[in-house]
Each structure stands twice: as structure tokens, then as C-alpha cells.
Amino acid sequence: MSALSSARGLASTFGRHQLGAIVATVIDFGTMSVLVSGFGLFAPLATAIGAALGGLSNFLLGRHWIFSASEERVADQAWRYALVSGVSLGLNAGGEYVLHDRLGIQYLLARVIIALVVSVGWNFPVQRSFVYARRTTNPRREQPPPTCPA
Questions:
Q1: Do 71 and 138 contact (CB within 8 A), yes or no?
Q2: Cα angle 19-56-109, degrees, rounded to a multiple of 5
Q3: If pLDDT is split at 50, 70 and 90, which confidence band does 148 have?
Q4: CB crowding 120-140: b at 16 or more within 10 Å, else e
């Protein structure tokens, strides 16, 4: 594979990743808004439900469309995704604290800035190289038991 086609493939994957993030964000915020405004649900609970559905949709998009990595066991990818998402949560919260609370940037602008930095600088590269990375062996294939020398 040439460097140019490799770069095009990476750019295409990155574009799908950003689209997937947008879709997950719409699901997250849309769910939260409908539950609060339409059903009168307690806002923190609605936020948690929206975030969970957004995260699930992002995981499934990553597995089936963004990285096309559905051949690996879902449980193996899911624990790695949860770990990466937990770090992402900390980076987003910490970044919001620094930009808004310490530097005085308006909270929504700070949120957008830090979300973009975390998405490009953490989520995409770590999902690509760790969560959905191609493994050298097929984890679904049964491995024969080791044999004992006679």
C-alpha cells in the first residue's frame, strides 16, 4: 500500500470517526432533551441515560462502520472502549475546569474546545490503535489444546 493510499485511508477513517461522534452527540443530547422536556424526567438522570445511549451508539458505530472491526469478540472491545471512555471523561472534565474555571472561558465555548481536543488527540488515536485495532489472531477461532510430547 502506498503512502498516499494509506493517508487517504486514515483520513477516511478519521472523517467517519468525527461523523460518528456527531451522531452519538445528537443521540446523547436529543435523548436528554426529550426525557427532560417531554417526560419531565430529573435532568441528571436524563443526562446519564442520554450519555449511555450516545456511548453505546458510538461503540457500535466504531465496531461496525468507523473501524470495521466486528470480527473481534464484542466483550473484548467493550472493556477497552469503557476504559478509553473513562479517561476521555476525565480529560473532558479536567479540561473544562482549566478552561472555564481557571482561565475564565465561557463554559460552552470551553466545552467545544476541549471536546475537539480530546476527540482528535485522545479518542480517535486510542480507539484506532487499542479499542478496534486488528489483532494478529482471530479471537473467535478455537485454539487447539497444547499437545504433550510423548
A1: yes
A2: 50
A3: low
A4: eeebbebbbeebbeeeeeeee
Cell of 115: 471536546
d(CA 41, CA 84): 29
Q: What pLDDT, in 10s, does the model give residues 65-116? A: 999 999 999 999 999 999 999 999 999 889 989 999 999 999 889 888 998 9
Does this model's pTM top 0.85?
A: no
- Cα angle for residues 130, 94, 66 (degrees, 5° grid): 30
Q: Quote the cell numbers at residue 36.
A: 427532560
Q: What is the grid cell recorded at 10? A: 486514515
